[in-house]
Amino acid sequence: xxxxxxxxxxxxxxxxxxxxxxxxxxxxxxxxxxxxxxxxxxxxxxxxxxxxxxxxxxxxxxxxxxxxxxxxxxxxxxxxxxxxxxxxxxxxxxxxxxxxxxxxxxxxxxxxxxxxxxxxxxxxxxxxxxxxxxxxxxxxxxxxxxxxxxxxxxxxxxxxxxxxxxxxxxxxxxxxxxxxxxxxxxxxxxxxxxxxxxxxxxxxxxxxxxxxxxxxxxxxxxxxxxxxxxxxxxxxxxxxxxxxxxxxxxxxxxxxxxxxxxxxxxxxxxxxxxxxxxxxxxxxxxxxxxxxxxxxxxxxxxxxxxxxxxxxxxxxxxxxxxxxxxxxxxxxxxxxxxxxxxxxxxxxxxxxxxxxxxxxxxxxxxxxxxxxxxxxxxxxxxxxxxxxxxxxxxxxxxxxxxxxxxxxxxxxxxxxxxxxxxxxxxxxxxxxxxxxxxxxxxx
Length: 443
Description:
By secondary structure, this protein is α/β, with parallel strands linked by helices.
């Protein structure tokens, strides 16, 4: 497994749990040192235990020696980053190609080179060209095996996936049966669980990941726009979402109004898909609009909070609960909090924030003036306004009276709809949420 980041570490560890010997190659010295010492450099519930058990069993190792890891391997998975390229939104595949070239130089015997990273259509063909050019003598196949891991639920997603997608070069003379057999063997435990494993062509597999993530992002953006409409016409978005979600053709997931989607996948993958469409001469206009609407929504959330404070937050103390783009992760990549808190800071607010897992990752990307608090109640100390940006479960059970004792003001902007409007109204709060009928503070 080339790359000990989120995808590589979770995937490699889960393969080891299946009983496979896995060597994870990590060239970042700090991350490698942490892994060797048993410290997990990412936040993922349950991963520390699984890593420790498989290291102790001898099935999982960490190192920076590419040749030692690749030598004798049946399959080499490339799980390095593919960040958005500045300017055009295309995925930067330079790390993938560099890793592949290194693999080609040290591989011995027949090897299946598998992209686990999310890569644009055509990457597999380019990988094959690079390998042939680097090692004309090497016997190899290229495969695409995109990951569908949700942060905070990644282990379950790997062990009990909705599906596994494996793409190979179906036009290769002689076929790619050997590659399919090796990958089928790796995923054999899932066959026993009757999880669907889909074999397809390279281009199809590469496109599936982008199409899946972009559809989900579009679904989030759809319910966010319906949420705005609900506020205008006096409807309740929770009831709308619940009712349309009961339609089997639609499904209930990803129908929760929010300040906008963020994280490591949806923003990057929607931009990449629009770039793929433009380059192919077949623009995906729905996704182009999804990207634009989502970016504007995050800005609108900051403006909404300022309007809630009668148009001026200068000198006010704002207590913020949740910073990460979603609960059960420390990931701050493209989190709504980055945009919202930057607006509030520039408007002169004093920000006190707490997140159960994301405080350290938040510091480099949030305004330097933000005060990071020891717990949620500390963040609310003396606050004029309370803002909920991430729906961590521990926030849901807070008693209104406890919140009232900590706060100076009585305004709550619940941008995740974690509390009941009537309960907060009766407790004397001026409360706003997303897509639910306005609640006027009790007199």
